[in-house]
Write a structure and sequence with these properties.
A hairpin with a 4-residue loop joins strand 3 and strand 4. The protein has one domain. It contains 4 helices and 4 strands; from the N terminus they run ββαββααα. It has a 4-stranded antiparallel sheet, with no helix packed on it. The protein starts with 8 loop residues before the first strand and ends with a helix. By secondary structure, it is an alpha+beta fold.
């Protein structure tokens, strides 16, 4: 749905005691309008980014990989290592 080639990045974090996916991009009215249509989307003034609950359906909708159930089974250290690895892969593309 959202095109990473136009500078959209995703971050997996805990926010307000829930696992969420932050959707970050430079302001663009059309992208902003598209993101606002996502079910359960909210704006974080702290992170200056939109976010959605980290669910399998949202991961699928956003074209993201590992499912929440598999991700949750990783230790916190391995979750962070996986996030860093994914971010490095995105930077190398």
């Amino acid at each position: 749905m959202l095109d990473k080639e136009i500078g959209i990045t995703f971050e997996f974090q805990e926010h307000r005691q829930k696992r969420v996916i932050f959707i970050k991009f430079a302001y663009h009215p059309q992208i902003n309008a598209q993101v606002r249509k996502l079910k359960g989307v909210a704006w974080s003034a702290t992170h200056q980014a939109w976010y959605v609950p980290d669910t399998e359906s949202n991961r699928k909708l956003l074209g993201l990989g590992i499912s929440q159930s598999k991700y949750s089974s990783l230790s916190p250290e391995n979750q962070k290592a996986l996030e860093n690895f994914i971010q490095e892969l995105e930077l190398s593309i």
